[in-house]
TrEMBL record:
<comment type="similarity">
    <text>Belongs to the class I-like SAM-binding methyltransferase superfamily. RsmB/NOP family.</text>
</comment>
<feature type="domain" description="SAM-dependent MTase RsmB/NOP-type">
    <location>
        <begin position="25"/>
        <end position="312"/>
    </location>
</feature>
<dbReference type="InterPro" id="IPR031340">
    <property type="entry name" value="RsmF_methylt_CI"/>
</dbReference>
<dbReference type="InterPro" id="IPR031341">
    <property type="entry name" value="Methyltr_RsmF_N"/>
</dbReference>
<protein>
    <submittedName>
        <fullName>rRNA cytosine-C5-methyltransferase</fullName>
    </submittedName>
</protein>
<feature type="active site" description="Nucleophile">
    <location>
        <position position="234"/>
    </location>
</feature>
<dbReference type="GO" id="GO:0003723">
    <property type="term" value="F:RNA binding"/>
</dbReference>
<dbReference type="InterPro" id="IPR001678">
    <property type="entry name" value="MeTrfase_RsmB-F_NOP2_dom"/>
</dbReference>
<keyword id="KW-0808">Transferase</keyword>
<keyword id="KW-0963">Cytoplasm</keyword>
<keyword id="KW-0949">S-adenosyl-L-methionine</keyword>
<dbReference type="Pfam" id="PF13636">
    <property type="entry name" value="Methyltranf_PUA"/>
</dbReference>
<dbReference type="Pfam" id="PF17125">
    <property type="entry name" value="Methyltr_RsmF_N"/>
</dbReference>
<dbReference type="InterPro" id="IPR029063">
    <property type="entry name" value="SAM-dependent_MTases_sf"/>
</dbReference>
<dbReference type="InterPro" id="IPR027391">
    <property type="entry name" value="Nol1_Nop2_Fmu_2"/>
</dbReference>
<dbReference type="Pfam" id="PF01189">
    <property type="entry name" value="Methyltr_RsmB-F"/>
</dbReference>
<feature type="region of interest" description="Disordered">
    <location>
        <begin position="414"/>
        <end position="434"/>
    </location>
</feature>
Amino acid sequence: MTKQLPPLFRDKMIDLLGEEEFELFLASYDQPRSFGLRVNTGKITKADFLDKSPFALEPVPWASEGFYYEEGERPGKHPYYHTGLYYIQEPSAMAPVELLQVQPGEKVLDLCAAPGGKSTQIAAKLQGEGVLVVNDNHSDRVKALVKNLELFGVRNAVVLNERPERMLNVFQGYFDKILIDAPCSGEGMFRKEEDMMQQWERHTVQEFADMQRELLGQAAQMLAPGGTIVYSTCTFSPEENEAQIAEFLDNHPTFDVVPVEHFDHGQPNWLREPWCEEHYSDRAREAVAGTARLWPHRLRGEGHYVAVLRCGDEGVGADVGEIVRVDAGGKAKADAGVIAMSDAGVRAMSDAGVRAMSDAGVIVKADAGVRAMADAGVIVKADAGVRAMADAGMRAKTNAGVIAKADAGAKARTDAGAGRSGRDALRGKGRAGTESRVSLEPLQAFEDELLRSEPFAALRLVCYGEHAYASPVGLPELHGLKVVRPGWYIGALHRGRFEPSHALAMGLRMREAKRVLSLASRDERALRYLKGETLEVAESEIIRDPEVTKAAKGYCLVCIDDHPVGWGKWLDGMLKNEYPPGWRWT
Ligand SMILES: C[S@@+](CC[C@H](N)C(=O)[O-])C[C@H]1O[C@@H](n2cnc3c(N)ncnc32)[C@H](O)[C@@H]1O
């Protein structure tokens, strides 16, 4: 295989590494690959997984939930894979999220997320608390991203299919943590995916470098003061790694590199011709030594580059987007084209074409000729000709907790669902001259019959047409963005009936359902369920609380070794299979 390495790549690596190190690097291509999986600690503790695991596992030193497994184990061909208890991931790819140090409750963006390996890792770290926004600009790859998040049972993720420049207005200064797992020339993947070698050419490195520069600048604008960006690639070229970070630091003086330990360091001496320009400041050159290089000949993994960038508490800096900040009690007034940000209790007023944002959960957005006023906790959005006013705890023309969006001349009305908890955040979307109303009664009946707790109580229930989602709280208005999933997909409300989604089953815990069938993984019916077959199931096997749910008939949550895997419908000794065709065991 070493013979097939592109000659230009070979020469470049010899120049960078030197002959001796290059021989070791080259030898790694003929070594066996390392295989890894990451436990989904959002569903199971590491200890419980290790108790159950049929695989011989060895910890990945740099990833708290990561393990090596032996070639030939095939964890992708085990029923546990279908319960979302782990994600199969190349071990060096586990490093970036580990270094992002995500804490439960944070607002996190995964900017280049598909197919979602790192998004699922972030989700596990968030433990269902906070907001996870995942984005990829490639519409086909987003499908895999959605599926992986659903398999993992993630409840608090929003999936976007956007060009990052279109996200800037909505998410200006919003995120605590951002991961840029950048598109790159993929030199670190040559051993794993030989096709990548054929695609590699010197000019592709430059093309990716241009994209990466843009992504870094865009991410900086969406980061909150004091926030952290992790930038990573699976390539070795300094143009896509050290040079990107050095240039970013020179253009963003309020950012620093947080030095990474336990890995080889970034190489300031590679910031030279013919690979890179040489004009970087001493500060930037020194800082890139704190970035990390994971080499396939120096650890058990394919190869990655990771930089941890922390923004100072003063924020991105006044030069970016002309941001004006004022303290509590102050008043922010902004002219056209300026972004004004103010702290809690501040009133923001804006002129034509201006966007005013304040902290404490308030977003005021006004278009030309409109005046918008809002107190804490309120989101008001008004288009031309509309005047929207809201007091604390109220929304314009809506019930408590509801976000109202009104187009010119239209009226948006929502039904707060008789004040049940978790019902107080339904969004109604109205078009000019129309009213949209979705009755939530079938969903409510399903919950009463099937769910022990209300798993989406801490989320906001939103309806898009007939589809109900539980959306993380604290999200800004996503108006204008291509939203693939505004949250956890709960199911469809159709002709007075509620059809629970597969994503709902995957996001539940067994204890949260009132009617359950739990098959042992060694029971041959487990595999038959995953293949989509109808099963014979005795009434006595349907676990239910006789005080609450007497009947065995109807929907039940199917589990394997007590971990949800999908829905079934039981009737007279038979379980109708609701496992979706695209998910089936083949
Ligand atoms: C290295 S892959 C991401 C892998 C992913 N983080 C994971 O762990 O599964 C890079 C991704 O960036 C996406 N991408 C490329 N250009 C982009 C852009 N300008 N904005 C957002 N995503 C982009 C690609 O479609 C690709 O899915």
